[in-house]
């Protein structure tokens, strides 16, 4: 029964980080409320992109979350952190190894002894146990720091997922807006070309002067000049989206990007921040990542402090010996040894003290980064609220202008049919309507981007109280 406490000693010592400071989350003043906003709702367990009701967008985001290179790098860092934790945790436990030796020689005895002089083997086979008694929590601190590193890497993986999903959605919306702008510009060029032909005929008969012809020509030329720019932006948006999706070079060059709903058919959600501002700390994966990195740096101080104290190691060797290796398993001798060693620092010329100061300085750096991430998060929510409100107001205003311009075209066409307007009036009204539609398309894109920015600012459904394994959803 006396052996039980000795056998349990490694388990009792493992995990005790005596010298690490007690961790306290840095405190920052938090606002009581955002304003009149209601609590946020993110559908389908964090799949916020489904709020736009476009199956093609859903498929593209899923593809990006599966194949994106940046996300793969974040996953690799997570695997490295897990391996590092397993290594650090194993350092707290004893190591057991097999030891063996074989030597050949001749044993010389006195001639009068009745023992034949012959070649013999000196053999040994046994096991060896090594253990560093972690009285000061050095290995435990290192293990706990690595465990916090695993959590930080997992939260970093979630932050990468959120950024990639947001970037994919915004690229897709830009592509759909450019598609629509291209169509409108092509219609505008056709309309203004017809208008220019009509004005030129009127000029030939003296109905209008040359200035009118010049103005219409400039408007047509401006539309034609804008079309190549839109085509260029459209092609670049396609290739950027293909890279975001992790597609092969051949697909980037040859494969056309899938399209879903038109930009004016997409649902524009209005996400809002959490009702209690302080809960944003639990909703942002980047904040959670910085806090776990801070916790890891806190345990690193304990690891550095442990260097002030002695290192105590235990070693045991047990096995069988025989002078004849052929008869090793019928050995005539068995042996075991138990040894302990201690190495205590006496004078290291400030090496340990410098290590402790370095660990403390690194922790202070992580405190600053943690607080900075909180400030950035609240700034992004604040900016997203402004962007969302202003974009919605612009979209509603430009939508009203587009509706009014379309009504003007209808009324002018009706007047033409009854002989109260000319074809010139109808074409001019169509040009104004197309310009209003271009402005409305730009405003729609701003509203969609603003909603994505808000989803990203509030964490996209992430919650530290939910299980996080870094494997994605």
Question: What share of residues are in beta strands?
Answer: 5-15%
**Order of neighbouring strands in the sheet with most strands:** 1-2-3-4
Write down the overall geometry.
elongated
Round the Cα radius of gyration to an integer and report it: 37 Å
Assembly category: single chain
Regions with pLDDT < 50 over 5+ consecutive residues?
Answer: 469-473
Percentage of helical residues? 55-70%
Structural class: alpha+beta
Instruction: Provide a count of the helices.
Output: 10
Q: What is the element string, with H for helices and E for strands?
A: HHHEEHHHHHEEHH
Tell me the span between the first and last alpha carbons.
50 Å
* Biggest sheet descriptor: 4 strands, antiparallel
Keywords:
10 helices; alpha+beta; disordered C terminus; 473 residues; elongated; 4-stranded antiparallel β-sheet; 4 strands
Describe the overall structure.
This protein has 473 residues and is of the alpha+beta class. 59% of the residues lie in helices and 11% in strands. The chain contains 10 helices and 4 strands; from the N terminus they run αααββαααααββαα. It has helices at 3-13, 55-67, 69-90, 138-204, 210-244, 249-254, 280-283, 285-305, 351-417, 423-457, and strands at 95-106, 119-133, 311-322, 333-343. Strands 1-2-3-4 form a 4-stranded antiparallel beta sheet, covered by helices on one side. α2 packs across α4. The two termini are 50 Å apart. The model is unreliable at 469-473 (pLDDT under 50). It is found in: Cell membrane. Keywords: Coiled coil, Lipoprotein, Membrane, Palmitate, Signal, Transmembrane, Transmembrane beta strand. Residues 1-19 form the signal peptide. This is Efflux transporter outer membrane subunit. Residues 175-233 form a coiled coil.
